[in-house]
Inverse folding.
């Protein structure tokens, strides 16, 4: 599927720790950077960590298929094999899962593989996959 790329800016409380996490753990390539922000390439999408410690805080959760999902989170939808590889890689990196890899909505419309991790500033990232793109918005 050929779709436009997105841009997302988010707050962090430490640029160096963020730089290490997004490059070493998630394999993001670096883009431009300054003393106040860093651009990362997350699977072809531009995400920007902005130094803004006062904006880094826990947020509320919603119950989704038995999991407490943070209302504020972001991530990408990966091909199934890439999602499996990334979840295994994250386990080897000894990064704690916020929500362990699992199948959500099993045998229902929108069945998906999903897991959540937390960056050093408390931002929650979700990585998910569907067996077919037709399931992404299926009701």
């Amino acid at each position: 599927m050929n779709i436009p790329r997105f841009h997302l800016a988010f707050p962090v409380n430490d640029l160096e720790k963020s730089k290490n996490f997004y490059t070493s753990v998630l394999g993001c390539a670096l883009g431009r950077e300054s003393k106040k922000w860093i651009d990362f390439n997350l699977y072809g999408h531009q995400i920007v960590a902005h130094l803004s410690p006062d904006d880094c805080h826990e947020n509320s959760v919603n119950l989704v298929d038995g999991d407490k999902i943070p209302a504020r989170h972001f991530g990408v939808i990966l091909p199934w094999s890439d999602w499996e590889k990334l979840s295994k890689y994250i386990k080897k990196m000894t990064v704690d899962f916020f929500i362990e890899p699992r199948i959500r909505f099993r045998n229902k419309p929108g069945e998906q593989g999903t897991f959540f991790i937390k960056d050093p500033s408390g931002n929650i990232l979700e990585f998910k996959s569907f067996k077919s793109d037709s399931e992404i918005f299926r009701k």
About this structure: Residues 35 and 112 are 38 Å apart (CA to CA). The longest helix spans residues 80-92. The first strand starts at residue 7 and ends at 12. The radius of gyration is 15 Å.
